[in-house]
Amino acid sequence: MNTDITASAKPEYPVIDRNPPFTKTVANFNTLDYLRLSTITGVSVTVGYLSGVKPNVRGPSMVTGGLIGLMGGFMYAYQNSCGRLMGFFPNEGEVARYKK
What we know:
Blueprint: H1 22-27, H2 31-51, H3 58-86, H4 92-98
Helix pairs in contact: 2-3
Protein backbone atom coordinates (compact mmCIF):
# COMPACT_ATOMS: atom_id res chain seq x y z
CA MET A 1 0.00 0.00 0.00
CA ASN A 2 1.41 3.37 -1.02
CA THR A 3 1.14 5.84 1.86
CA ASP A 4 3.10 8.63 0.17
CA ILE A 5 0.87 11.70 0.39
CA THR A 6 2.69 13.36 -2.51
CA ALA A 7 1.69 10.58 -4.92
CA SER A 8 -1.22 11.51 -7.12
CA ALA A 9 -3.18 9.84 -9.87
CA LYS A 10 -1.87 10.37 -13.37
CA PRO A 11 -4.44 11.01 -16.11
CA GLU A 12 -4.62 8.27 -18.75
CA TYR A 13 -6.21 10.48 -21.41
CA PRO A 14 -5.38 13.95 -22.82
CA VAL A 15 -5.87 16.70 -20.24
CA ILE A 16 -8.12 19.53 -21.42
CA ASP A 17 -8.27 21.50 -18.17
CA ARG A 18 -6.46 20.51 -14.97
CA ASN A 19 -8.83 22.48 -12.74
CA PRO A 20 -12.08 23.10 -14.66
CA PRO A 21 -14.41 25.76 -13.25
CA PHE A 22 -18.02 24.93 -12.36
CA THR A 23 -19.49 26.62 -15.44
CA LYS A 24 -17.17 24.82 -17.87
CA THR A 25 -17.86 21.47 -16.22
CA VAL A 26 -21.64 21.90 -16.38
CA ALA A 27 -21.42 23.16 -19.97
CA ASN A 28 -19.49 19.99 -20.79
CA PHE A 29 -22.37 17.66 -19.79
CA ASN A 30 -23.17 15.30 -22.65
CA THR A 31 -26.33 13.36 -23.47
CA LEU A 32 -25.31 10.39 -21.36
CA ASP A 33 -24.75 12.66 -18.35
CA TYR A 34 -28.26 14.11 -18.69
CA LEU A 35 -29.69 10.62 -19.18
CA ARG A 36 -28.00 9.38 -16.00
CA LEU A 37 -29.14 12.45 -14.06
CA SER A 38 -32.77 12.01 -15.13
CA THR A 39 -32.70 8.24 -14.52
CA ILE A 40 -31.34 8.60 -10.99
CA THR A 41 -33.91 11.31 -10.28
CA GLY A 42 -36.78 9.24 -11.67
CA VAL A 43 -35.82 6.14 -9.72
CA SER A 44 -35.48 8.20 -6.54
CA VAL A 45 -38.95 9.73 -7.01
CA THR A 46 -40.41 6.25 -7.43
CA VAL A 47 -38.58 4.88 -4.38
CA GLY A 48 -39.70 7.90 -2.36
CA TYR A 49 -43.31 7.38 -3.38
CA LEU A 50 -43.23 3.66 -2.60
CA SER A 51 -41.51 4.16 0.75
CA GLY A 52 -44.22 6.63 1.80
CA VAL A 53 -47.16 4.30 1.11
CA LYS A 54 -47.22 2.57 4.51
CA PRO A 55 -47.11 5.68 6.76
CA ASN A 56 -49.37 7.50 4.20
CA VAL A 57 -46.93 10.34 3.47
CA ARG A 58 -46.50 9.64 -0.23
CA GLY A 59 -46.30 13.27 -1.37
CA PRO A 60 -43.60 14.56 0.99
CA SER A 61 -41.68 11.30 0.72
CA MET A 62 -41.78 11.47 -3.08
CA VAL A 63 -40.56 15.08 -3.14
CA THR A 64 -37.76 14.33 -0.68
CA GLY A 65 -36.67 11.28 -2.66
CA GLY A 66 -36.76 13.31 -5.86
CA LEU A 67 -34.61 16.08 -4.41
CA ILE A 68 -32.09 13.60 -3.07
CA GLY A 69 -32.01 11.84 -6.46
CA LEU A 70 -31.64 15.14 -8.31
CA MET A 71 -28.68 16.15 -6.17
CA GLY A 72 -27.09 12.72 -6.44
CA GLY A 73 -27.65 12.56 -10.20
CA PHE A 74 -26.19 16.03 -10.66
CA MET A 75 -23.10 15.14 -8.61
CA TYR A 76 -22.62 11.94 -10.62
CA ALA A 77 -22.91 13.80 -13.94
CA TYR A 78 -20.58 16.54 -12.65
CA GLN A 79 -18.00 13.96 -11.58
CA ASN A 80 -18.05 12.30 -15.01
CA SER A 81 -17.83 15.61 -16.88
CA CYS A 82 -15.01 16.88 -14.68
CA GLY A 83 -13.18 13.56 -15.03
CA ARG A 84 -13.31 13.81 -18.81
CA LEU A 85 -11.96 17.36 -18.75
CA MET A 86 -9.12 16.38 -16.41
CA GLY A 87 -8.23 13.31 -18.48
CA PHE A 88 -9.29 10.57 -16.06
CA PHE A 89 -12.13 9.23 -18.25
CA PRO A 90 -12.25 8.63 -22.02
CA ASN A 91 -12.66 12.05 -23.66
CA GLU A 92 -12.39 11.78 -27.45
CA GLY A 93 -15.36 14.11 -27.98
CA GLU A 94 -14.02 16.77 -25.65
CA VAL A 95 -10.56 16.66 -27.20
CA ALA A 96 -12.06 17.19 -30.66
CA ARG A 97 -14.27 20.03 -29.40
CA TYR A 98 -11.71 21.97 -27.35
CA LYS A 99 -8.62 21.55 -29.57
CA LYS A 100 -10.13 23.51 -32.45
